[in-house]
């Protein structure tokens, strides 16, 4: 099924003429000239982003569990992410995967640390033809541990408008019911070091936080996060609302 979905994604892309995302010329999704001229913007600049994400659970120190991002969700990087997630432009995934790879590298994983990707929704896979997070993780040379956390099949984001317009806390409450421990959680999690939750974009941290909470409750001794890009808070001060990346459905 995964292979079939991937093949559909590639076929889709091959038949859609794609202008360069930066200059609009025909050599898209990112022409050779722009790739060279704007190379500086495409270099990962990892930073610890947990203080921006108000919905993350707190660790034993009273601080949020650490989440590393490979770069800012701004400028050309955010355009690439929007094209990748929203319009099926998978040819830019190498740039984004390098950002995720830098975030994972910054966590300096030990032998007992494992990566777990945020489980995709079926709707997301079927709409896009691929799972963006899995693509990025594979591109970064990593593999997510399977069977540790699942998305509840019956759960739906919202009848209308998805998560848009909800505050961080409301999103957190809604998302708390979206995930459950997977079949291998009880046996594997207690023996892990850090369980690193992987996602594409960090906004409020509601999704990442919900998965972290499930893992902690199921026996993970410690959690962390790694995302390709992290958004800057754009809402009113203290409210924790953030600009919503296109296609962020959970
Ligand atoms: Zn260009």
UniProtKB/TrEMBL annotation:
Signal peptide: none
Stored Gene3D superfamilies: 3.40.50.2020
One protein family per Pfam: Pribosyltran
Domain of life of the native organism: Bacteria
Phosphoribosyltransferase domain boundaries: 193-236
Assigned protein family: Belongs to the ComF/GntX family.
Protein name in UniProt: Amidophosphoribosyltransferase
Source organism (scientific name): Falsarthrobacter nasiphocae
């Amino acid at each position: 099924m995964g292979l079939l979905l991937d093949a559909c994604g590639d076929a889709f892309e091959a038949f859609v003429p794609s202008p360069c995302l930066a200059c609009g010329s025909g050599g898209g999704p990112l022409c050779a000239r722009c790739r060279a001229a704007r190379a500086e913007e495409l270099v990962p600049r990892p930073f610890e982003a947990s203080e921006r994400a108000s919905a993350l659970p707190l660790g034993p120190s009273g601080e949020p569990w650490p989440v590393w991002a490979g770069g800012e969700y701004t400028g050309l990087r955010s355009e690439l992410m929007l094209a990748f997630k929203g319009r099926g432009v998978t040819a830019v995934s190498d740039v984004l995967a390098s950002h995720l790879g830098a975030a994972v590298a910054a966590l300096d994983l030990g032998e007992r640390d494992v990566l777990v990707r945020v489980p995709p929704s079926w709707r997301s896979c079927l709409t896009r033809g691929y799972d963006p997070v899995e693509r990025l993780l594979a591109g970064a040379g990593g593999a997510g541990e399977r069977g540790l956390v699942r998305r509840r099949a019956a759960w739906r984001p919202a009848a209308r408008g998805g998560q848009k317009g909800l505050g961080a806390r409301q999103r957190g409450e809604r998302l708390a019911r979206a995930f459950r421990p997977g079949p291998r959680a009880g046996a594997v999690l207690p023996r892990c070091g850090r369980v690193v939750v992987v996602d594409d974009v960090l906004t409020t941290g509601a999704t990442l936080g919900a998965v972290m909470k499930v893992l902690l409750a199921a026996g993970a001794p410690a959690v962390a996060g790694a995302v390709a890009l992290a958004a800057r808070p754009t809402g009113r001060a203290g409210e924790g609302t953030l600009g919503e990346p296109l296609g962020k459905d959970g």
